[in-house]
UniProtKB/TrEMBL annotation:
Gene3D superfamilies: Cytochrome P450. The lineage of its organism: Bacteria, Bacillati, Actinomycetota, Actinomycetes, Kitasatosporales. InterPro entries: Cyt_P450, Cyt_P450_CS, Cyt_P450_E_grp-I, Cyt_P450_sf, Cytochrome_P450_monoxygenase. Its cofactor is heme. This is Cytochrome P450. Pfam families: p450. It comes from Streptomyces actuosus. SUPFAM superfamilies: Cytochrome P450.
């Protein structure tokens, strides 16, 4: 029952609502439509109708796990040739989802996280080494570029014992280039009608096949090294290769391991890199928030060289800065929910079994009914415990919802809080006054072209 759902004016037969849409910024286009059309709306492209929901009451209903579940469609389905039925891209009915979830979830327990902590510190040390040199030379740092190096090294070393040498390279590692290539391709496939893909994207498809082959080769080599070394110290790769399901005794197949490794290397770093970059942007533009965060780091950490695992969780204000950045720019900005059976969404919109809607987290997080009129303003105090308790449960969803929510949430939050703490303690962040926030989209969001000058607060020891 779509008739009651508004859509943009001036529809064309084949192009639908694509007039004026930019293929490079589909999310920000949808945000503009959302502001005009309200909490639920639809857009049409190439004969397909897409429903977008972002009003708090609608999303609360879509979060009901008894009636709705993750929908694998659009950009996610386009990634199936790359990562098959690994965790992120598996259909709910595929047995490999439960198997991999049960085998890998202990890799994200508190104990596992505490074991990754020293390695996270070590990688952060590479970043500060790199920034120290930039500070000494008076050079600006490339924030998204450096955060991507940091988060890729963090997941690859803690999870897979692999060193990409990102900080020793002038250009991104070819693995990153191939990964960005496949993500961009997956997004572009949505902007071209299926039958026209061979014609319009022939060259792009060939390049995509080469990118996939490169990702596979890289991962096969990581697995080969691990197998020949006779096992690591119980990281994610060891779990994938050696752990049997506690009840069924089943193990992941070699092909599934390959898909999981690529999934974790990609999902484990893109979004966290964006989250750190947005947080650094806001900190550089809000000196009063930066000062409060810095004072907290000084108080909680003192001048210890290596803050411990427990000391990161105690950076409450730094964590609020991160939450507030993820509110304004949830770096995985949307997720899809489908009806498990015929149902009525929020008592108003009938949905057939399998029908689905895209939740625009980036707009849910700005719903004035929940966040007030100043919802576009950066204000970490929104995440003070009293304020959080006063809000409904399902209005902040940067990590998705339900059984298919992000398995790496604690990993990302620990890593990002640790790194923000280290950077705030060591540097003043000086923005380029002419920079205006521009958000780049390639399935995930990133502040495009963000550069900062960093100056030492105190001389490095
Ligand atoms: C799933 C966001 C970091 C691994 C998801 C989903 C979201 C998300 C929204 C659900 C997608 C959907 O419903 O279709 C984020 C954000 C992160 C982050 C914003 C950082 C700030 C990480 C990290 C890892 C990771 C560090 C791994 C170490 C995964 C995996 C899934 C997932 C494997 C699929 C889970 C499943 O379906 O069972 N993430 N993520 N993510 N994330 Fe993350």
């Amino acid at each position: 029952e779509l008739r009651r759902i508004p859509h943009p004016p001036g529809r064309l037969p084949l192009l639908g609502d694509l007039i004026g849409a930019s293929p490079r910024t589909p999310l920000q286009d949808s945000m503009r439509h959302a502001r005009r059309l309200g909490p639920i709306f639809r857009r049409r492209a190439f004969g397909k109708e897409f429903v977008f929901a972002w009003g708090a009451d609608l999303v609360t209903d879509l979060a009901d796990e008894t009636r709705f579940t993750k929908h694998v469609g659009l950009g996610i389905a386009n990634l199936r040739p790359v990562v098959g039925d690994a965790l992120f891209t598996a259909y709910g009915h595929e047995p490999n989802w439960q198997l991999a979830h049960d085998v890998l979830a202990p890799g994200f327990s508190r104990e596992a996280m505490a074991a990754y902590h020293p390695m996270m510190l070590e990688v952060a040390g590479r970043l500060t080494g790199h920034w120290d040199r930039a500070a000494a030379d008076g050079r600006a740092v490339d924030v998204p570029g450096d955060m991507t190096k940091l988060t890729l090294e963090t997941i690859s070393r803690t999870g897979f014992g692999h060193d990409f040498g990102s900080f020793e390279r002038a250009r991104p590692h070819p693995f990153v280039t191939a990964m960005v290539g496949t993500l961009t391709h997956a997004q572009r496939l949505n902007t071209v009608p299926g039958p026209a893909v061979p014609l319009l994207l022939r060259q792009a498809s060939r390049r995509n096949a080469a990118d996939i082959a490169f990702l596979n080769r890289t991962v096969d080599e990581i697995v080969r090294v691990r197998r020949s070394s006779g096992g690591g110290e119980g990281d994610l790769l060891d779990r994938m290769l050696e752990t049997a399901h506690p009840e069924t005794g089943e193990r992941l197949s070699a092909q599934n391991v390959r898909h999981q490794v690529i999934t974790f290397l990609v999902a484990g770093h893109e979004t966290t890199s964006g989250a750190l970059s947005f947080a650094l942007h806001y900190l550089s533009r809000h000196p009063e928030a930066a000062a409060r965060a810095r004072a907290e780091v000084d108080r909680v950490w003192g001048d210890t060289e290596s803050p411990g695992y427990e000391q990161v969780a105690r950076l409450r204000y730094v964590r609020r800065v991160l939450d507030e950045s993820l509110r304004l720019w949830p770096t995985a900005p949307a997720f899809a929910r489908e009806a498990r059976a015929d149902t009525v969404l929020a008592g108003r919109h009938p949905m057939r079994r399998g029908a689905w809607a895209l939740v625009l987290a980036a707009m849910l997080h700005r719903d004035p009914a929940v966040w007030g009129d100043g919802a576009d303003r950066f204000d970490p105090d929104r995440f003070e415990p009293v304020a959080v308790r006063a809000r409904p449960a399902h209005v902040f969803k940067p990590f998705g919802t339900g059984a298919r929510a992000c398995i790496g949430r604690q990993f990302a939050l620990h890593e990002a809080t640790l790194v923000l703490g280290l950077l705030l303690r060591r540097y003043e962040l000086v923005p380029d006054p002419s920079y205006r926030l521009t958000v780049a989209e390639r399935l995930t969001l990133m502040p495009e072209g963000l550069r900062l000058h960093v100056q030492h607060r105190t001389p490095p020891a």
